[in-house]
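Example S7 (structure tokens).
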């Protein structure tokens, strides 16, 4: 037995003393997460800026804290209802027998969170796990080491380790963590690491939720307003410098609209991100080099890079955001998840070709469609598969707590946010009370 196994046994023992926490206990734990963030917003912003080199506090407050507060608020409003048993229909031959479903807590939930949004992607699953009555053990990413370390110290200050435990560390810790016999294991990250996590979990038949990524398309219909589409795509792409699992990865557009769209992209980027302090940096040198390699590979193969920003103070940025045109099909940038401020523009002749292009790749985590033509929209919704969709904007479906958030196929399995998170970390126990048959 290693120290992780002993630790898990201790948390399981604590759970066994309170296997079905009351509504009040669950809400109090969720409230502590809220208080923990409220009391330390400024310090967390500094840790995030230290990890990314550049990350504006406004971006951190919007993309990290606001999402956590919203999850707390939504859960607080609905948890009592979610916890109620659900009456189910019984067949007539069972007389007055009654059937119902109770949502039962599972035990200890393992959460492996990523570096790109190291606060909200660690805490929103934890909020859902607490809502469902579980204990939580978190393994945050080592790539956002300052934020992960500070978050770990805060959690230790606000929670007993048998309620909410944190283990920081590198790949060796992650491997041991994924191999523990949790009641459920929740992972957010890359497809490659997701496969490793799933293999490790399989040894214990641990159920997994995998929140992965992929190549999220932005489809621009001929009926779209190019100015509005460009503004939304630039924001979705450059928020956190594209280090977002649902950032638009590439654009599909008709040749006739391409050049005007690129001009609108540049105008929108200049309006939104001209201040060098507002464009988040790469998380580390490895990420920066990845962007440089993707860009160099595309240019070497004949693509043309179009700068999205033109301000002279750009020396503060480590990487200049670009759109790419005339990208040959074999370029790496069209096959690998970009996760950065590079936007390939792919010219497509018609809607059928655009749908075929999206379907030629693995199912993305999100899809964005811009336009006014309802028939074309319905075709896209019917004929493509993606985790979620935002119409005439980007990212925003992930900010609606009543919508499940998750992938399909290669972009993940299982979902969370709101009730979907409560359900993910609960067992739906079927109960039948037999009456009136004798």
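Recovered sequence:
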């Amino acid at each position: 037995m290693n120290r992780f196994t002993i630790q898990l046994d201790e948390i399981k023992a604590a759970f066994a003393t309170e296997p079905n926490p009351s509504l009040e206990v669950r809400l109090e734990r969720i409230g502590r997460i809220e208080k923990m963030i409220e009391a330390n917003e400024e310090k967390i912003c500094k840790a995030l800026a230290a990890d990314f080199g550049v990350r504006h506090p406004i971006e951190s407050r919007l993309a990290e804290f606001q999402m956590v507060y919203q999850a707390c608020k939504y859960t607080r409003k609905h948890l009592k209802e979610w916890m109620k048993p659900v009456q189910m229909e019984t067949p007539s031959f069972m007389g007055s027998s009654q059937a119902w479903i109770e949502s039962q807590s599972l035990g200890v939930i393992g959460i492996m969170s990523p570096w790109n949004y190291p606060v909200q992607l660690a805490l929103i699953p934890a909020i859902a796990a607490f809502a469902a009555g579980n204990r939580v053990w978190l393994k945050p990413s080592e790539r956002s080491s300052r934020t992960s370390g500070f978050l770990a110290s805060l959690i230790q200050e606000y929670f007993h380790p048998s309620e909410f435990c944190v283990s920081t560390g590198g790949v060796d810790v992650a491997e041991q963590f994924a191999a523990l016999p949790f009641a459920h294991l929740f992972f957010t990250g890359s497809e490659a690491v997701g496969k490793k996590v799933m293999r490790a979990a399989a040894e214990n038949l641990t159920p997994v939720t995998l929140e992965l990524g992929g190549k999220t398309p932005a489809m621009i219909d001929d009926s779209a307003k190019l100015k509005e589409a460009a503004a939304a795509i630039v924001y979705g792409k450059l928020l956190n410098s594209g280090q977002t699992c649902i950032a638009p990865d590439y654009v599909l557009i008709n040749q006739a609209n391409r050049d005007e769209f690129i001009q609108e992209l540049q105008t929108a980027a200049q309006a939104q991100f001209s201040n060098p302090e507002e464009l988040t940096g790469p998380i580390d040198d490895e990420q920066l080099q990845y962007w440089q390699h993707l860009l160099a590979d595309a240019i070497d193969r004949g693509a043309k890079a179009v700068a999205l920003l033109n301000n002279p103070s750009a020396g503060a940025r480590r990487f200049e955001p670009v759109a790419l045109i005339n990208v040959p099909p074999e370029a790496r940038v069209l096959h690998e998840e970009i996760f950065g401020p590079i936007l390939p523009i792919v010219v497509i002749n018609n809607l059928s070709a655009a749908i075929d292009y999206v379907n030629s790749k693995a199912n993305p985590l999100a899809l964005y469609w811009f336009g006014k033509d309802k028939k074309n929209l319905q075709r896209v919704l019917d004929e493509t598969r993606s985790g979620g969709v935002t119409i005439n904007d980007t990212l925003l479906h992930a900010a609606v707590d009543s919508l499940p958030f998750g992938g399909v196929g290669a972009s993940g399995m299982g979902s969370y946010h709101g009730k979907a998170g409560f359900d993910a970390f609960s067992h739906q126990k079927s109960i039948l009370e037999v009456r009136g048959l004798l």
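Notes on this example. The longest strand covers residues 98-105.
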